[in-house]
Amino acid sequence: MSFFEALFQNPSVQWVVLGTVGLAVLGSSVGTFNFLQKRSLIGDAVSHALLPGICLAFILKGNKDPLALLVGAFISGWIALLVIDLIQSKSKTKSDTAIAIVLSGFFGLGIVFLTLIQSSENANQAGLDAFLFGNAASIQKADLLNIAMFGSFILLSLFLGFRAFKALCFDKDFIAAGGFRVKLIQFWLSSITVLTICLGVQALGVVLMAALLITPAVAARAWTNKLGNLIFLSSGIGIISGFVGAWISYESPSMPTGPWVVLTASAIVLVSLVFSPKRGVVPRYFRQKANQKKIQSENILKALFHLEENSETASTGYSLKDLLSMRAFQRDQLVGALKALVRKNLLLEEDGTYSLSSLGRQKAGKVVRNHRLWELYLTQYVGMEADHVHEDAEAMEHLITPELEKELSKVLNHPEYDPHQRQIPGKHD
Amino acid sequence: MKEIALEAHNLTVSYHRKPVLWNIDFKIPAGEIIGIMGPNGAGKSTLLKSIMGLVPASSGYVRIFNQNLKTQRKKIAYVPQRQSVDWDFPARVIDVVKMGRYTHTGLFRRFKPMDYEKAKSALEKVGMLAFAERQIAQLSGGQQQRVFLARALAQEAELYILDEPFAGVDAATEEALIKIIRDLKSQGKTMVVVHHDLQTCREYFSHLVFINARLVASGPTQEVFTEKNLASTYGGKLTLLSKMAELVAEKEFPVREKGSSEFKKSS
Lengths: 429, 267
Prior knowledge:
The complex is a heterodimer. By secondary structure, chain A is an all-alpha fold. In chain A, a hairpin with a 2-residue loop joins β1 and β2. Chain A has a two-stranded antiparallel sheet with strand order 1-2. In chain A, 74% of the residues lie in helices and 2% in strands. Chain A has 2 domains: 3-278, ABC transporter involved in vitamin B12 uptake, BtuC (Orthogonal Bundle), CATH 1.10.3470; 283-356, Arc Repressor Mutant, subunit A (Orthogonal Bundle). Chain A has helices spanning 3-9, 11-36, 40-61, 66-90, 95-119, 130-133, 141-160, 162-170, 172-177, 182-204, 206-221, 227-251, 257-275, 281-310, 320-326, 331-343, 358-382, 390-396, 402-411, and strands at 347-350, 353-356. By secondary structure, chain B is α/β, with parallel strands linked by helices. Chain B has one domain (4-251): P-loop containing nucleotide triphosphate hydrolases (Rossmann fold), CATH 3.40.50.300. In chain B, 35% of the residues lie in helices and 25% in strands. Chain B has 10 helices and 10 strands. Chain B has helices at 44-51, 93-98, 102-105, 113-125, 141-154, 171-186, 198-204, 221-224, 227-234, 239-251, and strands at 4-15, 18-29, 33-37, 57-64, 67-68, 76-79, 159-162, 190-195, 207-212, 214-220. A 6-stranded mixed beta sheet of chain B has the order 6-7-8-3-9-10, sandwiched between helices. In chain B, strands 2-1-4-5 form a 4-stranded antiparallel beta sheet. Chain B is globular, with a radius of gyration of 19 Å. Chain B starts with a strand and ends in a 16-residue tail after the last helix. The model of chain B is unreliable at 263-267 (pLDDT under 50).
């Protein structure tokens, strides 16, 4: 049976997929607020700290009643949060250190309990170690009910508390100054965070549940600047990851679900950080490449403009050699760039010589105008010497927008000459 | 005497156990523009935070319009330093300004059309209406400050408390901000502004409060802007006072003993 057939026919496959996807939605939406609060590591600490609570609940109860384990986990996770806050406020320990201490301390305690339980030959203990790495395939109807019940509570909390959580993450002091009970809001957010982790830890394991809280949010942040969209996108990424994880582990049963969920989410982060239009590395590379190209073609136009300016008689065109004498262009790059400029009708070519088309002259004039206006501004307003301003203007001339140019011209009282007594070309609109 | 907008009575405040303000005691008249002046580390921001109830006082109290702060929250708007938040936060300008309406709407009730209108008109007053839908990450420092002021304006308070609104903004923004502050004053609002530029302070403020760990002087500008007050505000810290503050923190002693306060809690 293929995965998709099973998805419609086999209830236990449905439970696993629904459970994983549900947990992914909860983790990624709650996690978005933790991420925005710069408390990413808290999730990690809390999920590790659930272990002793789970083990104690098991010891007291004698079996793996999901609700009992959930309560144990929740209490344990909350104690961990309190201990982190206590360590920070009562000693001079910094937050990262406090988190690290609590994470490893609680986890160590949990492992000791786990070992005790395993050596006690309790017939019910089998599978308790699923909390370490998770076992999505073990999701039963009762687990699903828990996820659905507490999950709706968590989502409802997020919906109702959206404004409060947003304000808490952005400017805690401001809402405290407005008389709102910041501690209560923080308590509420922390509680649903702990609850989310508790719900997911058996299916996905401690490490992976923590990752699910942060990874989708990071990926989503690369694509959007709106908080609402961020939460939806982050949940979407969570859903895809949950689904892919469940699929892979169905197709090859030796593959664990949790790690594949997180690997999928991590792959999405990687793609996001590399390709997202505003924050991605690759788009930035192309932007820089385009800037370089713009600078080069403007420099060529400018060189021809200067050649025209300097020559007494109207020339038909200038050779490569003439251009190279004006500026240290790289020869082969120059040839390519010239061809491109001819194609754009900015240059005219005749027998291997080049001259500005009227469009090209207009464009070159603008660049030269920007250059000379900026030089004048630097000498008159910034107080730089006339022989120090050229380099700066060389770079700025490509960057000055038409609005800035207008402003410059106005501030300088529409000047005719630059500090070197060269004429500033008029505005060719 | 005019109505008192803000009174600090014998206020002592510690920050991370270390006392930074000792026995601050002043009254601020309503309907004026008041400058709080002092060198770096004088405790100006801590004073504001203490007034807003963000930092607990070790002793003393603050009264707003002769009432307890708790009953006056709607009447007092706080503009924190703009560096106190992460401007890369995913929000639009209008979202931030809408937070100013929270004291009226609460955190859960839906916004009424009136609340949107008030947020927009606050943005208009600071000349940022065209930026309403812009992401806050794209704003310049001066624009950030205008947005913060707009958020306070949206609250429609009586008393405005601004922490270094002119720090790191361009001249045009400073001019625009002081114009808004004067407009508010002419509507009868009280404006309390932490400021550190001695050049402009006489021009901006009708009243001054000089502090440097303790109160140096407070009163109308002509009376307290004296060489003597300037010298004791800016002429270095009181070495013994700061030594004692460090000792309080180091030895973990309380800065006030229990039951020593002459003030009985009643309001």
